[in-house]
Automatic annotation (TrEMBL):
It is found in: Cell membrane. InterPro entries: BPD_transp_1_N, MetI-like, MetI-like_sf, Nickel_NikB, Opp2B. Residues 98-299 form the ABC transmembrane type-1 domain. Belongs to the binding-protein-dependent transport system permease family. OppBC subfamily. Keywords: Cell membrane, Ion transport, Membrane, Nickel, Nickel transport, Transmembrane, Transmembrane helix, Transport. The complex is composed of two ATP-binding proteins (NikD and NikE), two transmembrane proteins (NikB and NikC) and a solute-binding protein (NikA). It is a multi-pass membrane protein. This is Nickel import system permease protein NikB. It comes from the Bacteria. NCBIfam families: nickel_nikB, Opp2B. The chain crosses the membrane at residues 9-29, 102-125, 137-160, 172-191, 226-256, 276-302.
Amino acid sequence: MGRYIVKRVLSIIPVFLLATLLTTGMIHLSPVDPAEAYLAAAHIQPTDEILAQKRSEFGLDEPFYMQYLHTIEKVIHLDFGRSYMSNQPVVDEVIYRIPATIQLALTSLLIAICVSIPLGFFSGMRKNGAVDHVSRLISFLGASIPTFVLGYLLIFFFSVKLDLLPVEGIGTWEHLILPSITLAVPLIATYTRLLRSSVSEALQEPFVQYARIRGLKEQSIMFKHVFRIAISPMLTGLGVNLGKLLTGTIIVEAVFSWPGFGRFFIEAIFNRDLPVIQFYVLMSACIFILSSLIVDLVQLIIDPRISRKEGRQQ
């Protein structure tokens, strides 16, 4: 087990280096000149002299490999530059906005877990039953309706027609209901379908038959054995979606005017704020790496056979 954990932790290094390489290469692949974008945001008339000065200040006149090494050095020191629009450190801008995104992401994830686990579990236990039909309908609708359409539908019914909930902004728990439900519905569809399929497959495994022959109670078999195995694919999905949610729920934040990091990233794209865009790409990669690592470790605790499988494959 220890060797497996060390291997997973070390696998973070090449992914991090690749993500840093991509963020450095963005400057060279993008048609936008960072010096011109900075001067445009600062409302300064660009001249050849000023452009040369800013390119030198940003290190754009250095060879690519030197820029790459400087980027790694800055990342290690948590120096991501300053936003072109606000002239504030990018880290400070993100720290100011990320709590709103975390609040929205965790609330939607909690709703998805609380709904999809019982729904997927009981629909997998009794195929073609009433619960199974309901879960399949929810999965179909949740996977079919685009997020922005669902958001506007919820606003239309609950805010415009019924006047029950606020349309946009942040402040009270009522502001959190519609955007979190909008984010949770696609997750519920995915997790319910995954858990239903996993439970159905686990019930066909020999260990279930052996447990029944030994006289174990059905409740003990389902919750101590079947559920423990069936939850693994769902945990993998949680890791992927957690990274996606924490790096900015872009569409939902735009629909509900939620002042999170996703909306800030959209504004950075329109304003050609390259330091913010670079930080978003790198932070997204790091969060996906860490969430994947955490999920792998949790799965290892739930099912120690994973480390033994890895050992045999080597």
